[in-house]
Amino acid sequence: MANEHVLVVDDEEDILKLVAYNLGKNGCRVSCVASGEEAIKAARKDLPDLVVLDLMLPGADGFAVCRALKGDPRTAGIPIVILSARGEEADIVAALELGADDYVTKPFSPRVLVARVRAVLRRKAEPPPAEASPLSIRGLTIDPGRHAVTSGGRPVELTSTEFRLLHLLARRPGWVFTRNRIIDAVRGEDCAVTDRSVDVHVAGLRRKLGAAGKRIETIRGVGYRFEE
After folding, report:
1. Is residue 19 part of a domain?
2. How far is it, in rounded angstroms, from Cα 193 to Cα 202?
3. Which of 40, 89, 109, 142 fits as disulfide partner to 221, beta carbons 3.0 to 4.6 Å?
4. How far is 163 from 149, CA to CA, in rounded Å?
């Protein structure tokens, strides 16, 4: 994480100092602000590589900051890691729906937070894979051009919805996709996908993939991700 600029947003001075110290110790350049309005202004003035964002802030809360940053083309690509005492499923889902990349609840381990930040920055640095490029992940091969999947050298017959679902998850290992985001990505003219049916498609996909299906992880109350 050497030299990456991280903007930390929290109204508790002790939290700001703790996070700044641990990120700085790992080579980051850290800026700190204590309100949502300051966060938006600071992010637009000096674009950070990542934002660590509390939800409960004076004035504009963390959700408002997410909307503002993700709605501005200049800041839309900045990853956001939520750091909040609000650990309810509804809050996690809402933050991810607004474009947050990860969610850490308070009280937290500084080492875990640094590891999460490191993982998000690493994914950001990786060039996005071409949509049509074949993927090969530990014995699992996905070829969008041929619409073909093999697992351990064995062909796997998938429906078009199952194929799009697998390709979506496998392109971004470690990324959490909410059910609504999955619906938006895999919906096609030949299939009807509802919130509950996503679970059915995932179950069928896991069954067809056999042992490789275990790499599709359930994030309880949120959605799914492909094993990193």
Report:
1. yes
2. 12
3. 89
4. 8
107 and 144 in a single domain? The answer is no
Same domain, 109 and 152: no
DSSP 210: G
| 3-class secondary structure, 102 | strand
pTM for the model: 0.63
Q: How far is CA 57 from CA 12, 19, 98, in A?
A: 9, 16, 17
Six token digits for residue 181 = 């985001």
Write out the residue range of the structural domain in which residue 205 sits.
Answer: 135-226
Do 147 and 203 lie in one domain? The reply is yes
Same domain, 52 and 92: yes
- What count of Cα atoms within 13 Å lies in the side-chain half-sphere of residue 211? 7
Q: Please count the other Cβ atoms lying within 10 Å of the Cβ belonging to residue 63.
A: 19
Instruction: Give the model confidence (pLDDT) of 96-123 as tens digits.
Output: 878 788 889 999 999 999 998 998 888 7
Residue 13 CA to residue 105 CA, distance in Å, equals: 17
- Residue 119 backbone zone (phi > 0: left; psi -120 to 50: alpha; other: beta): alpha
